[in-house]
Amino acid sequence: MGPGLAGALLLLLGIASCIVINLRMRSARAQSAEQSSPAVTRSSSRKKVQTELITINPGGFFPRTITRSKEAFFLAVDNRSGAPDVTLRLSRKTGSKVHEVLVTRNQPDWVELFDLTPGDYELTDADHLAWVCQITISPN
Question: Does domain 49-140 have CATH number 2.60.40.150?
Answer without folding.
Answer: no
